[in-house]
Structures are given as structure tokens and as C-alpha cells.
């Protein structure tokens, strides 16, 4: 059913009550691709943008996983849970209240780069064990910290005891931990009672398809081609047929490479190598360190 050799990506509006893995499995059953994978897990109670990579696009998943995320999050103050969200057991309640101005001032202190402690109930590993497995067994361990960045955070509405906050953040940010940390700073405690991801990089809900739409008409599912899906990356044009033939064999023409390196001397990430038919031929890391990670990833073209 997926006709394009390279595959592409599908932007799914994940429904509530299903894991990201099960959502991907349902789409695989409907569209019958060779391979499928998701980027950026959403908890079962969360909804919104889930980017699914299909066929060869799974080899470019790292270029999507690293994109910034945007969330609409609903915080419930005065109640804390062990999982930091509405699915957990209540562990503390408080009658401390605060004003909307207090909340606005506090959330702005979370802007910028910081170290965030990984939640107890998460898939992060400590000494080879998942944190949620240790937590369910009542084993307390020192939780790791991750460097994150909150690019923007804004209060949309507030009516005690709930507030709706929009957050634009880096990969790896736990919104339920952020909700808990905000509650701690305000003295009331808080947990996350609703979460909707509205964007992953350039992929927004406006471009997303609902599960029921795909179930009703699988052939009409909108697959975004791989080159378009990676349009947030800079590109280098390769037209010469001899150069392209070498590239198919995993090699770059030295003259072409040296000339293009001058254009990307300040770029540390991947560059799309694109043919004259606007097809992605490869991802290339022009400034990869000698002996470091792979500098060329060739796709069927």
C-alpha cells in the first residue's frame, strides 16, 4: 500500500488510552508497510502529534526525534500523585492557594536550560533496570538528571485548582515532572491531569490524521515524502550522474565534497543530499570528526 520506495512519515493524532507502540502497530496493520516506528513516546493518557516513520524513513527517525516539542498541559494544583499525573495514587494534598500573578511569575522561572530529574515512574534505566520497575517494587534509587531547555512557557487559563499551560521544549523533557516542580515552587503541589502534544518541529495538529480516518480509508492516508519530512535540514544539490552513481555505492566525490563543505563550515548536523528530481539521496555530516560517527547515510533513489 505504501508505493514510494523511500516511504515517508505519517502524522498521527494519537487518541487517549493507547500506547505509542500500540498506535504504531495499528497503523502497520492498516497500511501494511515493511517497517514502521514512532518518534517521541506519548503516555497512554496523552493525545496529539505522534510522528510515525514508514519504511526507509525509519532510518532518519533520529532527525525527527531531536526536534522541539510543543504541549498543551493541564495542571491540577493541591494534589500530588506518585506518578506525577492523573493515573497515579494520591500521595499528598494541600489547601495552599495562590493568585494568577503568582503562577505567571513562577512558571517563567522555568524558562531556559536546566537539569531536570527523571520521574520515578519512567522508562529511564538505572543500573540496567527501568525506573518504573524499581518504583513498583518499592526500591528507591538516585534518579538521573537530564539537561533540558524550556524555549517558551505561557499560561493560557487559570481557574483554581487547574491551569492550562503551553510549553515549547527540547527533546527529553518530562512535562509531568515540570508540572510537579511548578507545584512544589508554589507550595501547593500539583499533578498533570491532561496532556496534548500540538507540535513536533514543523509537524502540527493541523497536518495530523486521526486513527478513525485511516481506519475508514487506509489508501487515503497522507504520507509525507522523506525529503519533505526532513525539510528542516539544509540541503546540497547533486546533479552529476557519475557523482550520484558513486553515492549509491556509499562514496562521495572528493571535489564535490570539498566544495560543499565550504557552504556548511558552521553547521554541525546532517545535510540532505538531494537530486535534481527533489529526491533525498543521502544524509551527510560534513563536519563529522575523523574516526567518529558515520558521516554518510544513503537512501534508495
Describe it.
- The chain is α+β, with helices and mostly antiparallel strands.
- The protein has 3 domains: 84 residues, Pseudouridine synthase (2-Layer Sandwich), CATH 3.30.2350.10; 132 residues, Pseudouridine synthase, CATH 3.30.2350.10; 64 residues, no CATH class.
- The chain is 24% helix and 33% strand.
- It is built from 9 helices and 19 strands.
- The strands form 4 sheets. Strands 1, 2, 3, 4, 7, 10, 11, 12, 13, 14 and 15 form an 11-stranded mixed β-sheet that branches. A 4-stranded mixed β-sheet has the order 16-17-18-19, covered by helices on one side.
- A hairpin with a 5-residue loop joins strand 17 and strand 18.
- The radius of gyration is 22 Å and the shape is elongated.
- The chain starts with 7 loop residues before the first strand and ends with a strand.
- The relative contact order is 0.18.
- The model has no long low-confidence stretch (mean pLDDT 92).
Gyration radius from CA atoms, angstroms:
22 Å
The ordered H/E elements are EHEEHEEEHEEEHEEHEEEHEHEHHEEE
What's the tally of helices?
9
- Broad CATH class of the largest domain: Alpha Beta
Classify the helix fraction into a percent range: 10-25%
CATH architecture of the largest domain: 2-Layer Sandwich
Number of strands: 19
CATH homologous superfamily annotation of the largest domain: Pseudouridine synthase
- Please outline the major beta sheet: 11 strands, mixed
As residue ranges, the low-confidence spans are none
Mean pLDDT: 92
Number of domains: 3
- Return the CATH topology of the largest domain: Pseudouridine synthase
Amino acid at each position: 500500500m505504501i508505493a514510494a520506495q523511500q516511504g515517508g512519515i505519517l502524522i498521527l493524532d494519537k487518541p487517549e488510552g493507547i500506547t505509542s507502540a500500540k498506535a504504531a502497530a495499528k497503523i502497520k496493520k492498516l497500511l501494511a508497510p515493511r517497517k514502521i516506528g514512532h518518534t517521541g513516546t506519548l503516555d497512554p493518557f496523552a493525545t496529539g502529534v505522534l510522528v510515525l516513520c514508514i519504511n526507509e524513513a525509519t532510518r532518519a527517525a533520529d532527525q525527527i526525534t531531536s526536534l522541539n516539542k510543543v504541549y498543551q498541559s493541564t495542571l491540577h494544583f493541591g494534589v500530588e500523585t506518585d506518578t506525577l499525573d492523573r493515573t497515579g495514587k494520591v500521595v499528598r494534598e494541600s489547601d495552599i492557594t495562590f493568585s494568577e500573578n503568582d503562577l505567571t511569575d513562577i512558571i517563567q522561572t522555568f524558562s531556559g536550560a536546566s537539569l531536570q530529574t527523571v520521574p520515578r515512574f519512567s522508562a529511564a534505566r538505572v543500573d540496567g533496570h527501568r525506573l518504573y520497575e524499581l518504583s513498583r517494587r518499592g526500591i528507591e534509587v538516585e534518579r538521573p538528571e537530564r539537561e533540558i531547555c524550556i524555549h517558551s512557557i505561557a499560561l493560557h487559563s487559570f481557574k483554581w485548582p487547574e491551569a492550562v499551560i503551553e510549553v515549547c521544549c527540547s527533546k527529553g523533557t518530562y512535562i509531568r515532572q515540570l508540572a510537579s516542580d511548578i507545584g512544589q515552587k508554589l507550595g501547593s503541589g500539583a499533578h498533570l491531569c491532561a496532556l496534548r502534544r500540538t507540535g513536533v518541529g514543523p509537524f502540527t495538529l493541523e497536518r495530523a490524521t486521526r486513527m478513525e480516518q485511516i481506519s475508514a480509508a487506509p489508501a487515503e492516508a497522507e504520507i509525507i515524502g522523506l525529503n519533505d519530512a526532513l525539510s528542516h535540514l539544509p540541503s546540497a544539490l547533486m546533479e552529476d550522474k557519475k557523482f550520484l552513481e558513486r553515492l549509491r555505492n556509499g562514496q562521495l566525490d572528493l571535489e564535490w565534497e570539498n566544495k560543499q563543505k565550504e557552504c556548511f563550515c558552521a553547521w554541525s548536523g546532517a545535510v540532505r543530499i538531494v537530486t535534481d528530481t527533489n529526491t533525498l539521496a543521502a544524509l551527510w555530516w560534513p563536519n563529522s570528526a575523523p574516526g567518529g560517527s558515520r558521516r554518510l547515510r544513503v537512501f534508495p533513489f
